[in-house]
Amino acid sequence: MEQVAVKTTSSSYNVYIGPVSLGAVKECAENPKKILLISDKTVYSLYGEQVKTLLGEIAPVECLVVESGEEAKSFEEYYRILTFALEKELDRSSMIAALGGGVVGDLAGFAAATFMRGIPFIQIPTTLLAHDSAVGGKTGINHPLGKNMIGAFHQPAGVFYDPQYLQTLSGGEIRSGMAEVIKHAMIADPLFLEWLQSDSKAVMAPDGQQLAYMIKKGIEIKAQIVSQDEKEKGIRAYLNFGHTLGHAIEAYMGYGRITHGDAVASGMLFAAWLSEKVLGADLNYTRLKEWFHSCSFPQPLVPEMKTEEFLPFMLKDKKAGAGKIIMVLLERIGAPVLYSFSREELQALLDRYRKEELN
């Protein structure tokens, strides 16, 4: 089993990559008196009983199944979790386990962060996308006016990434997760990006060894950044490369209508185009766009979408302020910077970009 250490100002923990080990779970669980296992319908039907049995070796387990999909990151589901936890008499000596993708991890983590002012939780990710969201302590739920606008920083006690749980993922889900893999490469590791671009099969249909390699690389990059900036006061914002437009697309279209990764991929292409136009960067945008298309990432910025209608969602981005939209751009691959735009500037640039791309 591979391990990646994550060290922040508030805590330290390990990410385990390999078969889930009861010993490793026990080591980080700190003898909880009760465990609340939270999963979604799809994942629980596949792996829920297996994980419940494993956790049952540590403490009595209560299970709560939420809806599958981004819509589950709602106040209603969050409130239902807290109500269930109180009804099942969880207390400060209890623990929450999140079994699922990024939605379940964010939702369960936020419940853990706020239940009785915070109890421990562990992450058991089941998607490639969650190699990003399960690490770093960001938890939260969505608001109709913006994604992840309600939340807290709450580091997990441990993360257990078992590649067996990725075997049932669809091609679309693999592609969605691959967007975050590509993001990590673009902001931090030019050689990793070259490796990804050199083998389309590794991106479209990775084997187990390739998946394990990509998961570890992505987690190492994120862990290094989070260790320097836990609460996103500085360089952690670089991890939002592609997300300012990506989150706006998700909110505009309605959560769950497009995968997070597909939206972020579109956001990364726009950010790369902006980097060349505004910073004079040489990112070989044409090659990058062709590669994204060869990987089947869709182009959600269709003519029917009006820039002025989804631009307000970008203004609600957590990095925005004083009427300015701050985006992560690249001076070169592996060299991200923050760049501030007025609404008018960004709308004009986004309109220009869409005209070029849609013609």
Automatic annotation (TrEMBL):
<feature type="binding site">
    <location>
        <position position="260"/>
    </location>
    <ligand>
        <name>Zn(2+)</name>
    </ligand>
</feature>
<dbReference type="InterPro" id="IPR030960">
    <property type="entry name" value="DHQS/DOIS_N"/>
</dbReference>
<comment type="function">
    <text>Catalyzes the conversion of 3-deoxy-D-arabino-heptulosonate 7-phosphate (DAHP) to dehydroquinate (DHQ).</text>
</comment>
<keyword id="KW-0479">Metal-binding</keyword>
<feature type="domain" description="3-dehydroquinate synthase C-terminal">
    <location>
        <begin position="177"/>
        <end position="320"/>
    </location>
</feature>
<dbReference type="Pfam" id="PF01761">
    <property type="entry name" value="DHQ_synthase"/>
</dbReference>
<keyword id="KW-0028">Amino-acid biosynthesis</keyword>
<feature type="binding site">
    <location>
        <begin position="68"/>
        <end position="73"/>
    </location>
    <ligand>
        <name>NAD(+)</name>
    </ligand>
</feature>
<keyword id="KW-0170">Cobalt</keyword>
<dbReference type="GO" id="GO:0003856">
    <property type="term" value="F:3-dehydroquinate synthase activity"/>
</dbReference>
<keyword id="KW-0963">Cytoplasm</keyword>
<dbReference type="InterPro" id="IPR056179">
    <property type="entry name" value="DHQS_C"/>
</dbReference>
<dbReference type="GO" id="GO:0046872">
    <property type="term" value="F:metal ion binding"/>
</dbReference>
<keyword id="KW-0862">Zinc</keyword>
<feature type="domain" description="3-dehydroquinate synthase N-terminal">
    <location>
        <begin position="64"/>
        <end position="175"/>
    </location>
</feature>
<feature type="binding site">
    <location>
        <position position="138"/>
    </location>
    <ligand>
        <name>NAD(+)</name>
    </ligand>
</feature>
<feature type="binding site">
    <location>
        <position position="243"/>
    </location>
    <ligand>
        <name>Zn(2+)</name>
    </ligand>
</feature>
<dbReference type="InterPro" id="IPR016037">
    <property type="entry name" value="DHQ_synth_AroB"/>
</dbReference>
<comment type="similarity">
    <text>Belongs to the sugar phosphate cyclases superfamily. Dehydroquinate synthase family.</text>
</comment>
<dbReference type="GO" id="GO:0009423">
    <property type="term" value="P:chorismate biosynthetic process"/>
</dbReference>
<feature type="binding site">
    <location>
        <begin position="102"/>
        <end position="106"/>
    </location>
    <ligand>
        <name>NAD(+)</name>
    </ligand>
</feature>
<protein>
    <recommendedName>
        <fullName>3-dehydroquinate synthase</fullName>
        <ecNumber>4.2.3.4</ecNumber>
    </recommendedName>
</protein>
<keyword id="KW-0057">Aromatic amino acid biosynthesis</keyword>
<dbReference type="InterPro" id="IPR050071">
    <property type="entry name" value="Dehydroquinate_synthase"/>
</dbReference>
<feature type="binding site">
    <location>
        <begin position="126"/>
        <end position="127"/>
    </location>
    <ligand>
        <name>NAD(+)</name>
    </ligand>
</feature>
<feature type="binding site">
    <location>
        <position position="180"/>
    </location>
    <ligand>
        <name>Zn(2+)</name>
    </ligand>
</feature>
<dbReference type="GO" id="GO:0000166">
    <property type="term" value="F:nucleotide binding"/>
</dbReference>
<dbReference type="GO" id="GO:0005737">
    <property type="term" value="C:cytoplasm"/>
</dbReference>
<keyword id="KW-0520">NAD</keyword>
<dbReference type="InterPro" id="IPR030963">
    <property type="entry name" value="DHQ_synth_fam"/>
</dbReference>
<feature type="binding site">
    <location>
        <position position="147"/>
    </location>
    <ligand>
        <name>NAD(+)</name>
    </ligand>
</feature>
<keyword id="KW-0547">Nucleotide-binding</keyword>
<dbReference type="GO" id="GO:0009073">
    <property type="term" value="P:aromatic amino acid family biosynthetic process"/>
</dbReference>
<dbReference type="Pfam" id="PF24621">
    <property type="entry name" value="DHQS_C"/>
</dbReference>
<keyword id="KW-0456">Lyase</keyword>
<comment type="pathway">
    <text>Metabolic intermediate biosynthesis; chorismate biosynthesis; chorismate from D-erythrose 4-phosphate and phosphoenolpyruvate: step 2/7.</text>
</comment>
<dbReference type="GO" id="GO:0008652">
    <property type="term" value="P:amino acid biosynthetic process"/>
</dbReference>
